[in-house]
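Tokens for chain A. Residues wanted.
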């Protein structure tokens, strides 16, 4: 009985991360999966080749390396299947192309990752797909925007740069009542802090470039699907020929082992700094859903088990004419924070968020929005760096 209990008990997140996706005894006991570089796969005879009756058939369809990572992600997501693609953006475009056809309509949250908007406004538009951007706080009222030709509702929580929370269960219920699929960019929380499929989402998207990798040196994306969406997602990947290389999969698999420990450090440091910045002179507002002051904090507490290491502050700059100059002064005064895009790595980063493309979720009026990625450095050192930057804005 004791042995059975050990095999059926639910293991903790870090235990699962340390062991998911690969059985060392399947490859001579080595603790990491082999890096298999492959395009051609040989068959033992003509009958097997004709029927493709073997586990691996061609590099595009998977290797032991990609299989190990996909299996690990499936375990974290609770998914029927996961595809691995070369970037976080590809993790959005592949399922979109798989679901949408000419004449279809897609609903996309207005606080979406900006390259997603660009894809919708260019390629999807040329394909004859119409996009409607909706308020991130719309909740169940999204039912009013669903048309007969709506095929997909795309969500992102919290929103890019401005960190609005979405009522995912309410949106899922409204969409599924009309037979519409729901996708979610879940890069911020990862499946450790929000298991999107458990809340009814059909397609969970993650830029593995960020926290799964953790080292700012690889591009990768994953899409995990439930049973209803898996077959079409897999076929779309194979039809488009979009697959990730084994070296990148290996690096993300290696990073995945420490993601839980790193994410907890990111979470605690970011919350610490967000709380300090709420009291700092020169800061009009802090945009972090983990703070009690955030207007969507109740939704965050209800659905999410943790927060990650990225949030924004709004500089106190009532005169719009000074926004650009204050943002530049803030960034140029930083010494520890790097000036660069992306996030989820070990190093802290800062950017002036561009929100000019918003149509519904208008940007804060108090001043420029500065997005902060809190890395693994000591929070006290980071706060001193931020204090220097805020002092520099005071003279502008």
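Reply:
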């Amino acid at each position: 009985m004791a042995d059975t209990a050990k095999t059926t008990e639910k293991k903790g997140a870090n235990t699962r991360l340390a062991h998911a996706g690969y059985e060392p005894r399947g490859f001579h006991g080595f603790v990491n999966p082999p890096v298999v570089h492959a395009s051609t796969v040989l068959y033992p005879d003509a009958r097997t080749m004709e029927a493709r009756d073997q586990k691996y058939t061609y590099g595009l369809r998977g290797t032991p390396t990609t299989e190990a990572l996909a299996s690990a992600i499936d375990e974290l997501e609770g998914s029927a299947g996961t595809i691995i693609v070369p970037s976080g953006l590809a993790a959005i475009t592949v399922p979109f192309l798989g679901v949408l056809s000419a004449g279809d309509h897609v609903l996309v949250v207005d606080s979406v990752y900006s390259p997603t908007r660009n894809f919708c406004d260019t390629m999807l538009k040329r394909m004859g797909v119409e996009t409607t951007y909706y308020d991130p706080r719309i909740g169940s009222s999204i039912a009013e925007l669903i048309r007969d030709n709506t095929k997909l509702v795309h969500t992102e929580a919290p929103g890019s740069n401005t960190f609005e929370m979405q009522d995912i269960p309410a949106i899922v219920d409204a969409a599924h009542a009309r037979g519409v699929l729901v996708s979610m960019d879940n890069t911020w929380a990862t499946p450790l802090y929000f298991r999107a499929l458990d809340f009814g989402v059909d397609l969970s998207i993650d830029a593995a470039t960020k926290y799964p990798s953790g080292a700012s040196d690889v591009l990768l994306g994953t899409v995990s699907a439930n049973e209803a969406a898996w077959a079409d997602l897999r076929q779309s990947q194979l039809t488009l020929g979009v697959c990730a290389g084994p070296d990148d999969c290996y690096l993300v698999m290696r990073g995945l082992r420490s993601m839980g420990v790193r994410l907890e450090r990111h979470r605690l440091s970011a919350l610490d700094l967000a709380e300090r910045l709420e009291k700092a002179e020169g800061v009009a507002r802090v945009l972090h859903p983990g703070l009690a002051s955030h207007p969507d904090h109740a939704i965050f507490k209800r659905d999410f088990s943790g927060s990650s290491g990225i949030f924004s502050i709004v500089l106190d700059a009532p005169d719009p004419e000074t926004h650009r100059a204050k943002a530049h002064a803030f960034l140029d005064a930083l010494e520890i924070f790097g000036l660069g895009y992306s996030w989820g790595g070990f190093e802290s980063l800062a950017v002036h968020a561009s929100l000019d493309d918003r149509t519904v979720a208008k940007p804060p009026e108090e001043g420029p929005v500065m997005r902060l990625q809190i890395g693994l450095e000591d929070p006290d050192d980071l706060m001193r760096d931020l204090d220097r930057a805020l002092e520099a804005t005071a003279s502008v």
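The CA atoms of residues 63 and 385 lie 45 Å apart. Residues 259-278 form the longest helix (20 residues).
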